[in-house]
User: What shape does this take?
Amino acid sequence: MNKNAFNQPLDALCLKRLAKQCRRTQEQVYRMFVDAAWTLAIRLTGCEAAAWDAVHEGFVRAFRQAGQLRDAGAFGFWLRRIIVNQTLDAHRMRGRESAEGPPEASCSAPDPAWLDLESELARLDPADRMVLWLHDAEGMTHDEIASLAGMTASWSKTRLSRTRTRVREALNREMLDEETTLEPRTVGNEK
Amino acid sequence: MKNDPLNLKNLPASRPPDDLWPSIAAELAQTPKRPVRRYLLIAAAASLVVAIVTTMPFEPSDRRDYRSDYRSDYRSDYRSDYRGDYRGDYRGATPAAQPNPELQQARAASARLEQVLRRQRDGLLDATSVESLAWMEQELAWLDMQLADSPSDTHLWQQRANLLAEMAGQYQHNNWQTELRLASY
Assistant: This one.
């Protein structure tokens, strides 16, 4: 699967049909971008429920406002921007709610079956995770990330550097832990 | 690899849920339609008016003459006049330009007789007349139901006109007898 499939261009006719709310075209476009959209949302939010909300609302908004888009080739990037904004809004909302009450249970704990890197991603602060994913996996520039988050490019750079280091350290730590837990067993088997 | 040192792009993909699209489609289906432009509404209203006017039953302009004729004649041999005049009327005097002259004649006669009956229904009736007129009213209702389904059926319109003529005759006969009885007291 091409995770960065947001760069797939639409043709002008397809955009016109989207603007006319043609349901069949909407479904075709959905199928084109849903894998990329879902991957982005699940990585940014770290949980399925929040990813569902972001992708659902993202597609609904993109289709309803398709008439406002002039460049058909930019649809994917436009959709990505909408989904990232949805995710950011959800983070802000959740931040406010957690300040007022208990945190949302569904998004707090990462699935233990996930791989180490995925687990580490899920444990990250939402803003750190967003910067890391958008830059490293989606290939966005610091300026683009900064404009989405309403921050500066240097904020994005600092976050990225710090997050990469944190994830690397966590992965190294886990590798060391695994080695130490495996050693006695290996020794025992040899005996 | 410089831009992806943690190798995030190679993470296993997560499949989107199958019920995501139906949920999005359902939400999109609730999107309010674009407001209909004003001129479209006006055009639709104008078309409706034209359709109503063109499908209205033909009403001859000599209705008034017919009524006055009827008033002057009915006191004599009303029954034969009635049958003869009205049937003769609607079978003979219709503009040739109409696409179905017989249908137009039957409708016109029906309309004229309705006017006559409207006046006659206010009078007194004896028991025999009530029974036969009740039967004829039922027959009229049945014909009207048939005409609601086939408004252009010439034969039904002719039947209706004949029945109305018969009813008008029955009413008039009853009035004549009533008047005679009242005069004998």
User: Anything to note?
Assistant: Chain B touches chain A at residues 3-9, 11-17, 20-21, 23-25, 27-29, 31 (CB under 8 Å). Residues 59-96 of chain B have pLDDT under 50 and may be disordered. The radius of gyration of chain B is 33 Å.
